[in-house]
Design goal:
The chain has a seven-stranded parallel beta sheet with strand order 3-2-1-4-5-6-7, with helices on both faces. Helix 5 (about 155-175) links the parallel strand 5 (about 135-140) and strand 6. The chain has helices at about 20-30, 40-55, 70-80, 105-135, 155-175, 195-200, 205-210, 225-235; strands at about 10-15, 35-40, 60-65, 90, 135-140, 180-190, 245. It has about 270 residues and is an alpha/beta fold.
Length: about 270
């Protein structure tokens, strides 16, 4: 049997209606997992669920605001009734906002932390309790390179929150690894999604700015997360926990003064 086989396992992925959450969900299902899907986009969720069921897997679609504890707890109760277990959590969904540090309100900072930190902690806590009782499981938090380096451009609340996500990942791994529950974080650079496309449309100089620091020569795609998700959900990563894994096309490796080799058209695919 393949060490990447997820047959008989149950995964819960937030943000499953689009982008990295949707891509993650399909990768897990293609490797045998049944999946619970969470998002505020009910129509997008339904499309994802239909696609998962067409692969012969079970899919439970739950319209849920994963920034708030009560909807999260209700969703986990529904998961208990439908599947009776959870083996993998993909904590993908979460919204930030941009504002200059001298202008942002404390209420806006609290809003970002509610979405990116407190909601994700509640998801980890609910999944972790069940995984600890079962003796094993894997959690992946989606973080950002903004957790370890600064972006400017009004990212202060987002970067602060992502720093908290990274430290939460380390703490949970330290607390739970000895009892069989692994907790890791994936730190993407700029991955194309609807909100990023809107930002590029509003400021066409942004894409060139981002690409100037990505040796791979292209922006991220939602499907770039699929291999990592399957690895971290599977037994192939049984000794990987507490890790912060960049998914950035080489962005974190290059010095600000470095000269990036020009990618060919073929290698940038």
């Amino acid at each position: 049997m393949s060490r990447f086989d997820l047959s008989g396992r149950v995964a819960l992925v937030s943000g499953a209606a689009s982008g990295m959450g949707k891509a993650m969900t399909f990768a897990l299902a293609e490797h045998g997992a049944d999946v619970a899907l969470a998002d505020l986009n009910t129509e997008g969720l339904a499309r994802t669920a239909d696609g998962i069921m067409s692969l012969g897997r079970k899919a439970l679609a739950v319209t849920c605001d994963v920034s708030q504890p009560e909807p999260i707890r209700k969703m986990f109760a529904e998961l208990d009734r439908e599947f009776g277990r959870i083996d993998f959590l993909g904590n993908v969904a979460g919204e930030g906002l941009l504002a200059k540090p001298e202008e942002i309100t404390l209420e806006q900072v609290q809003q970002v932390f509610q979405s990116l930190v407190f909601g994700r902690f509640c998801m980890c806590q609910e999944a972790g309790r069940r995984m600890l009782a079962a003796g094993g499981g894997s959690i992946v938090n989606i973080g950002s390179l903004a957790s370890t380096t600064a972006l400017g451009r009004g990212h202060v609340a987002y970067s602060m929150a992502m720093g908290a996500v990274v430290q939460m990942t380390r703490e949970l791994s330290t607390e739970w690894a000895g009892r069989g529950v692994r907790v890791n974080a994936i730190l993407p650079a700029q991955v194309m999604n609807p909100s990023l496309e809107k930002r590029i449309a509003a400021d066409p100089t942004l894409e060139a700015k981002w690409l100037s620091g990505i040796p791979r020569g292209r922006m991220g795609r939602p499907t770039d997360i699929q291999g990592l998700a399957v690895l971290l959900a599977s037994d192939a990563s049984s000794w990987i926990t507490g890790a912060l894994i960049p998914m950035d096309g080489g962005n974190l490796a290059v010095n600000a003064g470095g000269t990036i080799g020009k990618p060919t058209e073929q290698t940038a695919q």
